[in-house]
């Protein structure tokens, strides 16, 4: 009889805890589909996340949830952000959602393509009823108003937020102020321009403004990603020999509206953004560049090229001499004219 008890008791304990575990991993309330928004802060531990979910009444047992997380081996995949959950979800379903990073975004969705100027950025915001043009312009031309939150702006040669309003998709609150919206975009730039890039910037002995300034020109000149580091090398080579950058993109920035073609007369305009007349970089970046253009400036190709001209397929022809460059220019014009006749 004692032998039977010795066998039955452990089995009973296992069954009891198995049943307890089963009941605790299931939905908190399988009939309640009401959404609950949960905010997982950056750097939250499994314990922190467990406490948040328990307080929101999304899990029944902290101990069981932690066990489920450990069993899933997904703790390292957990991502910060807001998640829309409800009480019909099991522990494992909640774990999968937080590990997937499928965050819940609320507010007005606004997408800024790479290479927009600050004026174009403002136009998009105003069209989405997110503030006034005059307020944005005043803030963008006053970086000191953001020094308290963004130390990287506190540099003598940064006189505008142009170049630092990172191109991406954002979700803005309807009642957000113009300054709060710009701070969100600056925060994204600060996140993207990480320690690796900052270290590389020091290695190449450039200021942040110089990096972003040149990256903005590369952004406007490049069509294909593989051309970005080569275009960057062309501009570095020109700077090294005190040759004007001669970029049509900087000329375009001087105009209120972008022109279809930059003419020879345009090259004579009296503007600090005329890189045909003025040597060195323009006073500010001419657009908000992508990370690819920033990396191209920090890690340019090593070339002897001093010139480049577009090809009809979107790429470029590069040359070391002006004579070769003129041949490529003529070649481009002939190919362009042929395409026009075909169309």
Commentary on this structure:
The chain has 343 residues and is mainly alpha-helical. The protein folds into 3 domains: 22-100, 2-Layer Sandwich (Dna Ligase, domain 1); 108-192, no CATH class; 205-305, no CATH class. It has helices at residues 2-25, 46-55, 62-72, 91-100, 118-127, 133-140, 178-192, 195-203, 208-221, 228-240, 248-254, 291-298, 322-342, and strands spanning 36-40, 81-85, 108-111, 169-172, 307-310, 316-319. It is elongated.
| Residue share in helix | 40-55%
Please tally the helical runs, counting DSSP H or I stretches of 4 or more residues: 13
For the secondary structure, the number of strands is 6
Mean pLDDT: 90
User: H/E order of the elements?
Assistant: HEHHEHEHHEHHHHHHEEH
Distance between the termini: 97 Å
The percentage of residues in β strands lies in 5-15%
Major β-sheet strand ordering: 1-2
Low-confidence stretches at least 5 residues in length (pLDDT < 50)? none
